[in-house]
Amino acid sequence: MTRILKVERRHQVPDDTLTWEPRERRVRAARGETVVVDSLRAVLVWEPGRPVPLYAFPREDVRTDLLRPAADPDTGAHSGSETFYDLVLDGETIANAAWTFPVDELSDYVSFEWSWRPGGGLDHWYEEDEEIFIHPRDPYSRVDALASSRHVQVEIDGVLVADTHSPVLLFETRLPVRYYIPREDVRLDLFTPTDHHTGCPYKGTAEYWSLTAAADTVPANLAWSYPDPLPAVRSVRGMIAFYNEAVDITVDGELTPRPVTGFTGTLKPSR
């Protein structure tokens, strides 16, 4: 008889462990027009408690002539590192733009901040000849956008704002299913576009909407769309999605539970 063991899905590596592995892609990074690193020997590093990886590079592949010991080291910002560098370029100093990890195996490697992080960093990153954004793509994360005929309804404070039988369901590792809805099936007359934008290394740049007559409990920027998504998720182009964390989504007549994710704490009321 086959024994079936029911277990919870879990990560292979504990969240409190610093891990790394080699990357076989050519990786380049620049500040403006100046290439600061160009490497065929980059490693991906996962820091404890951080959901996405960073790159680290052998010193020989880094423009170390542009680095200076940090004037005010941000000690402890990256896995207990005590060695930080300021990047000095064209008369500009970017504080704590680079650092080393406090483990022997990575002692000869240098990692860099990305420009979107506080304090800034390198602002153009490439894997081979393709520019990447926000952070490296995690080889253990997957994003699938699948056309569906499920009946999806979205309500906000009891008001039906979207109703469709032709959604695209987007499945992303460690995130809840996102339901992308054709614009013609969304009450966009109830929403106002905002100037908020976000970037995703898997999907592209998103634009956002807030509910026009929002109650004090309704978050701003709770609906979004990718007007020009990356090729892997091209099928969601122009469709509208809502934060499951903040709205009521009913699928085939069954109300789905509101998940608690890393986005939950960022969803602030419009007023």
Describe this structure in words.
With 271 residues, this protein is mainly β. It has two domains: 114 residues, Metal Binding Protein, Guanine Nucleotide Exchange Factor, Chain A (Beta Complex); 124 residues, Beta Complex (Metal Binding Protein, Guanine Nucleotide Exchange Factor, Chain A). Helix content is 0%, strand content 39%. It contains no helices and 22 strands. Strands 1-4-5-9-8-7-6 form a seven-stranded antiparallel beta sheet, with no helix packed on it. It has a four-stranded antiparallel beta sheet with strand order 3-2-10-11, with no helix packed on it. A four-stranded antiparallel beta sheet has the order 14-13-21-22, with no helix packed on it. A hairpin with a 2-residue loop joins strand 10 and strand 11. The radius of gyration is 22 Å and the shape is elongated. The termini are far apart. The N terminus is likely disordered.
